[in-house]
Design a protein that fits this description.
Blueprint (H helix, E strand, L loop, with lengths): L3 E2 L6 E5 L26 H13 L4 E5 L7 H13 L3 E7 L8 H11 L3 E5 L2 H4 L5 H13 L2 E5 L4 H4 L10 H4 L2 H8 L7 H8 L21 E4 L3 E3 L8 E2 H6 L1 E2 L4 H18 L12 H12 L9 H7 L4
Parallel strand pairs: 2-3, 2-7, 3-4, 4-5, 5-6
Antiparallel strand pairs: 1-10, 7-8, 8-9
Helix pairs in contact: 1-2, 2-3, 3-5, 11-12
The structure holds iron/sulfur cluster (SF4) (2 copies).
Length: 315
């Protein structure tokens, strides 16, 4: 009988409406940027994701990207499909780039559609691409229209107020991004692998064969516009959501299976001709990123080649 990997319990899901974004933040876990493919989640895929999440017992989602406001009508469709599936919509993430593009009308239409809360990004990483007056203006507009919101992360506002609110800023102005990343509580995936490599000491990684069973854990995971399941924390890996819910065949996804059963040791064995960096790596997950990037050229379906290229691109 075919061996199946344990399926995750679907708790909280983030729906990735798109990977394209107006910004290319250096901490972005999904390596989003203006250069990513411009696709947006279709109504059909949103409906299928809603069905699968509902079947798996997921009670609440948030919507993010990329920048979900890049296709406002698409966002309204996605919201209606979440409601149609009977799943709660907790909030919609945005970097507020659209504050000068009929923002009041958009907020009113969002409220009509049942989008009641925004998670508005404000921190030094975003300030490199979006003037920090934008999220603050969006906050004011939310107050006026009755849209609920929270600023993520508002504790950085006092440091930003020393800078011109109408401009974007360089890192020479923003500070030490290694220290800011620590304060932020960054997860070292996506484009943040570069920050970890800049600031964390490198060394030899213990190549143990402990399974990375967190790949199918109950933690908050994501479902993307292509109907993929993205494991919590391990971005750059993907499985069809339907298979993640109904059972993953152990032999169908060699990279995933290697990590799931034998962890980093299993992945290194799979990578064969991979040549490690002479100075080592700052963490096991950083080595995992580079092994998967190496393997992404070999056509494994669970590896998204575009993600690895975008993660290493600074703008
Ligand atoms: S963190 Fe948000 S705003 Fe920044 S690049 Fe990623 S998706 Fe875009
Ligand atoms: S080693 Fe890889 S699979 Fe395991 S937790 Fe880290 S990123 Fe995820």
């Amino acid at each position: 009988m075919e061996r199946k990997l344990k399926t995750p319990k679907l708790t909280h899901c983030g729906i990735i409406a798109n990977y394209q974004c107006t910004a290319a933040c250096r901490h972005c876990l999904y390596a989003c940027s203006p250069a990513r493919s411009p696709g947006y989640i279709s109504r059909k895929t949103a409906r299928e994701i809603g069905r699968l999440l509902r079947a798996g017992g997921c009670e609440a989602v948030h919507i993010g990207g990329g920048e979900p406001f890049l296709d406002f009508d698409g966002l309204l469709s996605l919201i209606s499909e979440v409601h149609r599936a009977g799943i709660g919509l907790e909030y919609i993430e945005t970097n507020a780039y659209w504050i000068e593009e009929e923002a009041q009308t958009k907020l009113e239409r969002l409220l009509e559609a049942g989008g009641t809360t925004l998670c508005i990004s404000i921190d030094p990483f975003h300030a490199e691409y979006v003037p920090y007056s934008y999220p603050l203006r969006l906050q004011d507009l939310c107050e006026q229209t009755g849209m609920k919101y929270f600023l993520w992360q508002s504790r950085f506002i006092p440091a930003l107020t020393n800078l011109d609110p109408l401009k974007t800023h360089t890192w020479a102005e923003l500070g030490n991004r290694g220290e800011i990343a620590q304060r932020y509580g960054i997860h070292w995936g996506g484009r943040a692998v570069n920050i970890e490599e800049e600031y964390a000491p490198r060394g030899n990684i213990i190549l143990d064969a402990s399974p990375c069973s967190g790949l199918l854990s109950t933690g908050p995971f994501h479902a993307d516009l292509l109907g993929n399941f993205i494991p919590p924390g391990c971005t750059g890996l993907r499985l069809p959501l339907a298979e993640a819910v109904e059972g993953v065949s152990a032999g169908k996804y060699p990279v995933f299976g290697a990590l799931y059963f034998r962890g980093i040791r299993g992945l290194l064995d799979l990578a064969g001709d991979f040549v490690p960096a002479p100075g080592g790596y700052p963490s096991k997950c950083n080595l995992c990123f580079h092994l998967r990037r190496h393997l992404a050229d070999q056509g494994f379906p669970e590896l998204d080649k575009e993600y690895y290229e975008a993660a290493l691109a600074y703008w």
